[in-house]
Sequence to fold (216 residues):
Amino acid sequence: MLQPILNAAIFGVVMVALGWKLIPQALAWVEREHTQELFVLAIMSTALGIASFAHVLGLSVALGAFVAGLVVGRSQASQQAADGALPLRDAFGVLFFVSVGMLANPNALRMYPWLIALVIVVVVLGKMVVGGVVARALRCSVPMSALLAVLLAQTGEFSFILAQQAVHLGLLPTALYDAVLLSAVASIALNPLLMRWAEWMASRSGGGVTSAAAGA
Fold:
């Protein structure tokens, strides 16, 4: 019981020690070499190294990747790092959607349709309502609130990682895992329609989604 806590503490101490100054300074030094390929390689090595270190300690690889992003973000060259990672983001984005399609079980629609419908309603409508209410509570305009609600409606990538871990630990039934995957497919398919709805809401309020985002 104490071992995971100890491993997490070790990971945190090492990341604070290296990520506060050493790694950002090293990335800044590489950036001053004005070699884009070397800089991208340094970013990838840092991210994979931190994620692997988390895995060795028995922690989540996703947690390691998240911490790697925080560490890289502390570098003065964080904007260049983000720009250099755009091609990788697009490539992995394609792989993400492919993996969703491969993992989804169409037979689940026949086996437990009501469960899937309930998950879709909770995920899509629930997140939209919460996002819209919070945006309005923060005094955002109606177009911006509609835009934020739509953007939050789609299932995030991290939810798949959590769902897979829950299934692996026996905390989540397979039926519910299939429902989560199919709800993600549904949210992806509904996203263009929801964006049109947000545009319609914005036009009724005398603005547009683009202008609303620009004014945020």
About this structure: The two ends are 45 Å apart (CA to CA). Confidence is low (pLDDT under 50) at residues 209-216.
